[in-house]
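User: Second chain of the day. Same drill as before.
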Amino acid sequence: MHSSSATSVSELSNTNMLEGIFSIWCKKLGLNRNSVVPAAISALRFCLEQLAVLPFRQSLATAFWIGLGMSGDMSVSTWQNLRRLEELSGIPAKLIVAVERRVARAMRLRKRIKQDLEEGWAECNV
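Assistant: Same format as last time:
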């Protein structure tokens, strides 16, 4: 486990390693990696940039769970898969869900702010 954000951000630069971890988890859960991994990588970037206080392993598990939810297939975001993710990651399921709610809310807020800024800029007459 890594606790410093500098270490976590430098690890993020090795996207192939992270994709490999997420791909292994997908394989062990019997999931399509192409529908989960891109969203999980995006969520992990957000976790490491905006919530640097989280341990790296917690960010990894939460990002994967968010990736499952964003995959478009609601049948993969099941309690059974959450329990299996808990076993794979070593992070308690309750903690994954609690942090996921916080991250999802922050990601929605960031998206809304970005949209508001773009709309405001489009209305500018300069």
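Residues 25 and 60 are 11 Å apart (CA to CA).

User: Great, on to the next one.
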